[in-house]
């Protein structure tokens, strides 16, 4: 999958300006397909040049003029062709898990702190997902086909965040005793004795 496909999907419902599309992207597809606003603007320009989307300049009296992008028939064909292609399972990289492989060597207090920060992050994201779920998808069975696709993406996000929160809680319970034991076994450093400097007296004749 490329960023172009994510943008084409985001234009399925209605036309968007570059700013509106980037904002919508952050609040929807951006949760599982990261892209900066600069990358989105550059990709919009490429898609318009290739004819997959149209670009219409809208003149405004008060605000600056803006360009509105819309999916073309050629873009819809390209999107359908991509949807029919096989989907590969995503690759997964997690730096914290690699660090935990060194738990017997690394300072457990440092890793415990990292787990705590990760727990806080995923608790906040889970709460956000749950708020969106309650506000927009209270009865999934009554959703349209397009909305069901949106719901399923959000539902996977909720389940993922719940599992990570539970993992962080379990990891905390396992690493905390190691951190406490490390603190108790740490020997206090003995202070070095101060060396007193003695001056030499000059002999007078």
UniProtKB/TrEMBL annotation:
Residues 186-205 are annotated as: Disordered. It holds the Pfam family Vir_act_alpha_C. The keyword DNA-binding applies. InterPro entries: Tscrpt_reg_PadR_C, Tscrpt_reg_PadR_N, WH-like_DNA-bd_sf, WH_DNA-bd_sf. Keywords: DNA-binding. Residues 7-80 form the Transcription regulator PadR N-terminal domain. Gene3D superfamilies: 6.10.140.190, Winged helix-like DNA-binding domain superfamily/Winged helix DNA-binding domain. This is DNA-binding transcriptional regulator, PadR family. It comes from Solimonas aquatica. GO terms for molecular function: DNA binding. Residues 93-172 form the Transcription regulator PadR C-terminal domain.
